[in-house]
Amino acid sequence: MIEPTARPLPWQSATLTAIRPVTGRVKSYRFQVAFDRPVLAGQHVDVRLTAPDGYQAQRSYSIASAPSQDGTIELMIEGLPEGEVSGFFETVAEVGDTIELRGPIGGAFVWRPEDGGPLLLVGGGSGVVPLLAMLRHRAAAAPEVPSLLLYSVRDAGEAIAAEELAVRARDEPHFALMLTLTRAGGRRVDADMIGEALHRLGQPGHIYICGGNAFVGRTADLLVDAGVDPRLIRTERFGS
Amino acid sequence: MSTRGFTGRKPPEATRERLPPGQYLTEDFPVLQIGPNPRLDLDTWSFTLREGSRPLKSWTWEAFTALPRTRWSGDIHCVTKWSKFDTAWEGVSFDDILADAGIAAPTAFLLAEGYDDYTTNVPVGDLVGGKGMVATHYDGAPIPADHGGPARLLVPHLYFWKSAKWVKGLRFTQRDEGGFWELRGYHMYGDPWREQRFTGD
Ligand SMILES: Cc1cc2nc3c(=O)[nH]c(=O)nc-3n(C[C@H](O)[C@H](O)[C@H](O)COP(=O)(O)OP(=O)(O)OC[C@H]3O[C@@H](n4cnc5c(N)ncnc54)[C@H](O)[C@@H]3O)c2cc1C
User: Fold this and answer.
1) Mean pLDDT along residues A6-10
2) What is the pLDDT of residue A184?
C-alpha cells in the first residue's frame, strides 16, 4: 500500500546518547529523537551539520535499529578518510552533542512484516546497515519468515554486527547467514554463490540489495541472470 | 545554531555559487535507482506519447533517433545530495517530439514512464521551450544502461529523480499526478534551488 505522505518533514534536534565501536572503521551512534511518523525497516535519515559561519553539509544514513517505540534510533557510520560528515562523526562527535536530522525517509527500500518472505538480503560493506534493521525487525515481529543474508566484506574484521549475525544464524531457525570475504584470495559474490543462496532460501518473495554502486549493480545483474523476477529486487546505493 | 566542533570542507566560492542548498560537488557519476537495470533491445524499443491510456504517437528506435538533435551542457543535482557540473547530453527535445507528433501538449501535466515501471511527474511547462529532452547520448557516447540508456528523460533544472531513466514514454494527465517517489513523500515539483526535496519543503 502506498500512502502519500502529505506532511512536511521537519528538521529536528537529536541528542547523541551513546557511541560504540562496531568495527575498526565503523561506529554506532544512538540518538534520542521523537519522529512524528513511524519508522519502517530500511529507511534512512538525513543529517545536517552547521559550521559557525553558517556553512552546512548534509548526508544520508540508514537506520540500523528496528522500528521501536523507545524514542531512539541507531546509526552506523563508517569513518572515511577525509570524509566531511563521516569524519566529523569519527573524530569530533561526543555523547551529549546535539545533531540536526530529519526522517524517516524512503518508501521503496523498506520491508514490513506483512510483506512476508522468503526474504533475500544482499549487503556489501556498510550497505548491511538497513538490512540489519530488517533482520532485527523480522526477528521481533515475524520470526517465521524465511530469510538469508548474503554479506560481502573485504575481511572478517570489517563485518558489521558480525557477532549479532552469527548468534542470529545459530538461534533463529529461519535465518541463514552467508558471509564472503573478498580480500587476499577471497571470493566476490558470483553466480554460484547466488545459486547457493537461492537454493538454500527457496524462491524469494522480496530481495533487497545495498552497498556501493558497483557491488549493487553487479549482484542485481547476477540475480536477474539467475532467473529472478526483476520486480522483486529493490536496491539502495551508498555511493561509488 | 552550529554543530559543536564542525567546520566542514567549504568549497571555493566559484563552486558554492553553482551548488544549490544542501548539495555537494562530486566528480564521479553516482547511480540511483530502485531496482536492477531493465534489459532493453533496440530492435523492440519504442517511445510512446499517450493521453491517459490513449496512444498519440509511437516511435521505433530508428525513427526516434532520426528526429532533430539537441545538445545541452550544464549542472545536474540529485536529491541524495550530489551535484555534478558540466555534464553534456544530446537527444531529442520535447518540442521536437511534439512537433513530429504534430500536436500541441493536450494537458498541462504528464508522467514520464520508465521500462522499469518507474514513473515521475513533470509539468509540461518545464519541458517546453528547450527545457527538457529525451537524451540518448552522454558525454558524446550512447548513455550506458547504468545511467538510463538507451534513452532517459532530461529535465536538468529539477532534481534528477525527475529525469526518468530507461524512459518508454510520456503520459499526459489531466491533473498533476504524483509518480513513484512523489507518492512516497518526495516533493511534487523538486526545484533544487528552493531545496524542494520532500513534501512541504
Ligand atoms: C540512502 C543512503 C544511506 C546511507 N547510509 C549509510 C550508512 O548507514 N552508513 C554509512 O557509513 N554511510 C551511509 N551512506 C553514505 C553517506 O551518506 C555518505 O556518503 C558517506 O558517509 C560519505 O560522506 P562524507 O561526508 O564522510 O564523505 P565526503 O566528504 O562526501 O567524501 C566521500 C569520499 O570522497 C573522498 N573525498 C571527497 N572530497 C575530497 C576532497 N576534497 N579531498 C579528499 N578526499 C575527498 C573522501 O575521502 C571520501 O572517501 C548512505 C548513503 C545513502 C545515499
Assistant:
1) 85
2) 80
Domain assignment of residue B155, yes or no: yes
What pTM does this model have?
A: 0.94
Contact between residue A151 and residue A166 where contact means Cβ atoms under 8 Å apart = no
**Percent of chain A predicted with pLDDT > 70:** 97
Closest residue by Cα to atom 49, ligand 1, is: A80
B59 touches chain A (CB under 8 A): no
Percent of residues, chain B, with pLDDT higher than 90: 96
Contact A8 B201 (CB under 8 A): yes
What is the number of the ligand 1 atom nearest to the C-alpha of A105? Answer: 1
Question: Domains (ranges, CATH) in chain A?
Answer: 12-105 (2.40.30.10), 113-238 (3.40.50.80)
The residue range of the domain holding B113 is: 18-27+42-194
What is the 3-class SS of chain A, one letter each residue?
A: CCCCCCCCCCCEEEEEEEEEECCCCEEEEEEECCCCCCCCECCEEEEEEECCCCCEEEEEEEECCCCCCCCEEEEEEECCCCCHHHHHHHHCCCCCCEEEEEEEECCCCCECHHHCCCEEEEEEHHHHHHHHHHHHHHHHHCCCCCEEEEEEECCHHHCCCHHHHHHHHHHCCCEEEEEEECCCCCCCCCHHHHHHHHHHHCCCCEEEEEECHHHHHHHHHHHHHCCCCHHHEEEEECCC
Residue whose CA is at the smallest distance from ligand 1 atom 18: A59
Q: How many domains does chain B have?
A: 1
pLDDT tens string A174-183: 999 999 999 9
pLDDT in tens, A58-107: 999 999 999 998 999 999 999 998 999 999 999 999 999 999 999 999 98
The A residues from 86 to 105 touching B (CB cutoff 8 Å) are 88, 92-93, 97-100, 105
pLDDT on residue A167: 98
Instruction: For residues B44-55, give the mean pLDDT.
Output: 97
Q: Which residues 6-65 of chain A have a CB within 8 Å of chain B?
A: 6-9, 48-60
